[in-house]
Give the backbone structure.
Amino acid sequence: MITLKLKKGAERRLKTGSLWIYSNEVDNQASPLKSFAPGDQAVVETAQGKSLGIATVNPGVLICARLVSTDVKIPLDKSLLVHRLNIALSLRKRIFSAPYYRLVYGESDYLPGLVVDRFGDYFSVQINTAGMEQVREAIIEALEQVFKPRGIVLRNDGASRSQEGLEQAIDVVSGEIPEFIELEENNTRFVTSLVQGQKTGWFYDHRENRRQMQNWVKDKRVLDVFCYAGAWGVQALTAGAKAVTCVDSSEWAVELAHENATLNNHDQQLESYQGNALEVLKALLAEQEKFDVVILDPPAFIKKQKDHKKGLEAYHHYNQLALRLLNRDGLLISASCSMHLKRQELMDVVRVAGRHIDRQLQVVYQGGQGVDHPVHPAMVETDYLKAVFARSL
């Protein structure tokens, strides 16, 4: 196996537990990056020749290598994949009574570049790096060996694949995937599509925050902005909300939210607006509508660090509109999945929104991602989800 030699001192982050190697940390004279093909596996060595493990390499991107094993005798293959899948499964089985969760969360499950969501006997998989793409067949075989699934779909249509120089596609690679599959979350039934839906088809990461939300909505009027398939809104209805208004730009998502409300015998209590969220919020304000709970769970407004200023402005704008729609003693649930937005920055967004309209706020709960999205202690990038529950006095 070819060697990837690091510059002097460049191993410090790896020794703290990080799995990433940046292109400017590689000794290009001793091991030219151009000599590697995307997806190659290499033994990583310090400048002094000490082996640190095996990494997958992609010479054309900033994160040019990702450590997959600290033992140079154990490469990334089906055997290692089966072992890591079983370790990941043991965590989820310890916490969840039903098989609906994120099974593999990339670096946090020591499988960098791989995401797997489980929907009972069906699996939705994202392969996001050239290294994982090289072992694509081994991933499928490992899933089949451990779970004997009824169907596996590769949702390889994310933007990260383009950055890695990989083609985008959606492929059913094992068994069959029905048009809609069922899942359960917080005593609420849902259907979604693993082929047409966003990302892997569902967003399990807010599960615990939605569970907390259910404590606040009984007999309340709820506004769910960026509702997607109704994960927040429908769970509010099953927890006793009087009425829920869902907002999303996707007609397909709004229809799915209604279907999920019907599935839980609450469709009569759900109304919806399909359109631009900003315009809908302004229209609701013009109509002098008021809600007891407003949920803001937008897509990532800050996808890259260079988007920070513009994205932060968007968070401010939406949160100020949301507070204007809130009754006195109402609850704002403000969330962010932007890795580049710090937790304190979201708190500041909520605080400034309150001061902007002269509202006193109490933060009554702060949440993050669920147990099936564990945080790698040496990689802050894995800790991305934030939720602030603020009571308006």
